[in-house]
Amino acid sequence: MERVPVLKIGDMLLVSIQVDMEDQTALNLQEDLADKIVATGCRGVIIDISALDIVDSFVGRMLATIAGISKVLDAETVVVGMRPAVAITLVELGLSLPGIRTALNVELGMALLARARFEAEGGGDAGEDDETVAAAS
Amino acid sequence: MALGTDEIGRFAGFLKEHEAALVESWSHRVADGLRGRLSQTELNRQIEELFRALSEALDGGAGTVEDPNAAELRAVLSELSRSRARQGFTSTETAVSVFALKDALLAAMDARQADAGTLRDFIAFSALIDELGLFTFASYAAAREELIADQAEELLELATPVVKLWEGVVAVPLVGTLDSARAQVVMERLLDALVTTGSPYAIIDITGVPAVDTQVAQHLLKTVVAARLMGADCIISGIRPQIAQTIVALGIEFGDIATKASLADALRHVLRLSGVDTRRNGRKDG
Amino acid sequence: MNAEPQRLTVASDQDVVRVRQLVRTVAVAVKLSLVDQTKLVTAASELARNTLVYGGGGTVEVDRVDNGRRAGIRIAFVDSGPGIADVNLALTDGYTTGGGLGLGLSGARRLVDEFDIDTEPGRGTSITVTKWCR
Ligand SMILES: Nc1ncnc2c1ncn2[C@@H]1O[C@H](COP(=O)(O)OP(=O)(O)OP(=O)(O)O)[C@@H](O)[C@H]1O
Ligand SMILES: [Mg+2]
Q1: How far is A21 from chain C (nearest CA, A)?
Q2: pLDDT of A13
Q3: Could you read off the pLDDT of C90-103 as tens digits, one per residue?
Q4: Quick one: which atom of ligand 1 is closest to the CA of C125?
Q5: What is the C-alpha separation between C53 and C45, in angstroms, rounded?
Q6: Range(s) of the domain holding residue B140
Q7: Is the ipTM of this complex over 0.85?
Q8: From the candidate CATH numbers 3.30.565.10, 3.40.640.10, 3.40.50.300, 3.40.50.2300, the one assigned to the domain spanning C6-132
């Protein structure tokens, strides 16, 4: 069974979905990500779907579930890189991905996460370099 | 209706025997039909090429236009139709270029005093020429359709420019009637522009659009939702009073979509959102 | 000019991926626009998954069609599972018996040009969709 790699970059997790996923692969990703959020203490997750040429209701549901799980674990999720044809299709399908933040690309996604954190912490200093998380487990 | 082997042989032989005369009278007849809109040299070249392709097809034993040995002949005919279509000749003028060979044949046969056998051959040869003519007709129609589709697409593209207004802001100023097909093109081009320019904001300005129907309003709405799914915000500006009435009367939910009176208002709004911003624009300090 | 119809068995997750890939290949071959390709592949993914999950597996047949004016693709999803008792209900946005979003059937119908469903409790379900080139 193929697994989608989850990378830790700074204090964020980056998931870049590169394959046409089987349903089971998508379910595995949900679990892997939850484990990784807890293990690393990361507060932001970026899911890059720019390589996906379709998103159906199953993958849509997976994205929503990941966003939900992250939230419970005190992390924000941003889905980035959705292709125009995929977005048009999702609108027709009736899938609006409520509760999921989106951004055009990874860079804008990171900016969005940084801003969200800044606001959540009352506009205080959101430390850029927290090495401390690694020591958690 | 394919020609028999004997007939093919006789046809090929006849063409060889009378080559010079046939090519000449064929070209003349075609030139008459086109009334000088094609240079004589160009025309001669085409007719010679056709003549050669036909002779070769017959030498290869082709008794119908679909015969594998007539592939080269078909290619020549298609090319002829395509160039005629592009140069604006009618389908009749194009087909006559082929049918004129019949008159040329008849003239050549008359010259040696036709007997019953010759006439029977002429009828058989004519049947093949009819096939070639019909093939030309069909290629012409296909070429025209291609041409029209290309032009329609070009017009659509011309009519929907997507411009980058500011770092992070693209706009599409729409002018003229928006039908469903054009609305769809606009939608796709706008979304593509968001990706290629990495712009999180888009302004759809419909100041120049006189009216919208339900379908078009739905397309606009879907564009906004699709952009949001991709992580970009759309603002619709320049909604005329009549369009506002339509939207309300049709009960279309514009929901929480930002609308602004003018393109300038929309840009100001976007710049404020993205924090570029208005402080510099001389608001009173608090 | 039409190629032979291509048939796949749907018995696992991987088969659903294969259906998507086959539909994409044929959609490119008949020159559907990129957006229409995406719509059709998405619809096929939904319907093939229903065939697997609710129909207990079945077959998918992908066929190139031509109505004289336009080329297109026709896809048939056939299973001999439990069938659907109330088609209208199943085609309602949000209706699900399997904890899904209930958008597969209704959404797939919106993504294609023609949508036919033939189902009977106890006999199985057969859904045929067609998308035409614009
Ligand atoms: N091939 C089938 N055989 C039997 N029942 C089916 C079949 N396809 C769909 N159904 C029934 O119709 C319901 C609606 O299907 P639909 O695909 O719309 O939603 P879903 O599969 O439950 O969720 P989603 O596809 O959004 O993840 C299903 O829950 C199921 O009860
Ligand atoms: Mg389903």
Answers
A1: 7
A2: 96
A3: 999 999 999 888 99
A4: 1
A5: 12
A6: 5-152
A7: yes
A8: 3.30.565.10
